[in-house]
Write a structure and sequence with these properties.
5-stranded antiparallel beta sheet; alpha+beta; disordered N terminus; 5-stranded mixed beta sheet
């Protein structure tokens, strides 16, 4: 049967009075595509705004309104304005965030910015696109090491704060992982709670693997973190708080390795996490293993480094959560690139960003020329040297093989700046992965 579509025109389009069911369908599709497009839909028409949910209406930390694929691309532009990038669509936005002037940026979780008030140390989550600010319970002195680590009372360049959002509770819980050279703490709370709950040291003391962490990721509403050597644990909150080993087969290695969890690129379509392990030496390998890996070009030679650090290794693995194992990966796809670092780990498509090489691992910049490896190409096992930056303090330029994190203890706003302008998107992205707040414009 032939069907014909008949279009009646009255000479005027009655856009504000589109059927509510149609607006709901369009709004739902836009939310799955990009939160920013949903915000534009509501801003375009008063009637559309009246029949769609505002970010606050879903309650604090509503999963629908988290800007998961948006990252802060630059540390500072004009005043409190920051530049953000959507890793899926390539959209860019300049957002005025006056809240940052009174807070330290600690980390991000599902695109939300975790802030610490400079005066009171109050913890807050800021949605940079909706400007919704969620107050979290106070982190008080009776919480022991969690309080010391959160407030930064013991300045230590090894201090690290990671955060995630667990959907195991209702409303969702914010989970904090905090450590420095001497202490560790895991705390969690809902926005409606009166106080944070700290996981007792007995929770991780009973584990058969070392307890530390180097990166974290959320997958299907559950919060996972990786230890430096590559074991993976889930911070589970129900029925009782505990650490559940997902991968526990990696032997403890001292000092020369960090493991990074990379979340899936598409939250709605699913997919698994990747792990990237970066070894700064080959001390964990036997002589025969080193010889064989050098023959296959699996390892990276750095001629400018001292003999101890002349060889390094980058491994990519697929995380099989159900099978509780890691599967070696030699190819992540000719259009996929992965960026890893202490500040953030993410993947993107070279089809969306043609200036980025596909099937490659980019190491986050942590110094003027540090780490010594910039890009590892998985196709031909080639390597690009470190990206080069500069600083506003010329006295630090001679420390090109050092991390700048230690200098941020006394000067939190200290950052890298481009060596030349205009700088490339790749330079912005490696700074975003390696240093909290990204490159300073």
């Amino acid at each position: 049967m032939k069907m014909e579509m008949m279009i009646f025109s009255t000479g005027r389009q009655d856009w504000p009075n589109l059927p509510t069911v149609l607006i709901d369908d369009i709004a739902g599709r836009l939310l799955r595509y990009d939160l920013a497009e949903y915000i534009r839909l509501r801003a375009a028409c008063k009637e559309w705004r009246n029949c769609t949910a505002a970010a606050r209406e879903g309650g604090d930390l509503d999963s629908r309104f988290r800007p998961r694929r948006w990252i802060m691309l630059s540390n500072r532009t004009d005043g409190d304005v920051r530049r953000f990038l959507n890793l899926s669509t390539g959209a860019c936005a300049r957002v005025d965030l006056p809240e940052l002037s009174a807070h330290h940026l600690e980390t991000s979780a599902d695109g939300l910015l975790l802030l610490r008030n400079k005066a009171s140390h109050a913890a807050r989550l800021l949605n940079p696109l909706t400007r919704v600010l969620t107050d979290l319970p106070p982190i008080t002195a009776d919480l022991g090491s969690a309080y010391t680590l959160w407030t930064g009372q013991s300045p230590d360049c090894t201090r690290l704060v990671l955060a995630g959002i667990s959907e195991e509770t209702s409303p969702p819980s914010v989970v904090l992982l905090m450590k420095d050279r001497y202490e560790r703490a895991i705390a969690y709370a809902r926005s409606c709670d009166q106080r944070w709950t700290v996981m007792n040291s007995e929770v991780w003391g009973s584990l058969s693997i070392s307890f530390s962490f180097s990166s974290a990721s959320t997958l299907q509403g559950r919060f996972y973190f990786a230890t430096p050597e590559g074991n993976i644990l889930e911070a589970s909150l129900r029925p009782e708080p505990r650490l559940v080993p997902v991968v526990a087969s990696q032997a403890k290695i001292e000092f020369n390795v960090n493991s990074y969890l990379v979340p899936p690129a598409d939250h709605h379509r699913g997919g698994g996490m990747l792990m990237v392990r970066y070894y700064t030496t080959l001390n964990h390998l036997s002589v025969n293993e080193r010889r064989n890996m050098k023959r296959r070009r699996d390892v990276i030679r750095l001629d400018e480094r001292t003999k101890k650090y002349r060889w390094s290794l980058i491994q990519v693995l697929e995380v099989d959560v159900a099978g509780k194992t890691l599967l070696p990966v030699e190819d992540i796809g000719r259009q996929q690139a992965v960026f890893i670092g202490e500040a953030a780990c993410f993947s993107l498509s070279a089809r969306t960003f043609p200036c980025v090489a596909g099937n490659a691992v980019y190491l986050g910049a942590e110094g003027v020329r540090y780490p010594p490896v910039g890009v590892r190409y998985l196709t031909d096992k080639a390597v690009d040297p470190a990206f080069q930056f500069t600083t506003e303090d010329e006295s630090l330029l001679e420390l090109e093989n050092s991390e700048l994190k230690g200098y941020r203890v006394k000067k939190p706003e200290f950052n890298l700046v481009p060596l030349a302008r205009p700088c490339t998107l790749q330079e912005y992205l490696v700074c975003c992965a390696g240093l909290l707040g990204g490159l300073k414009d």
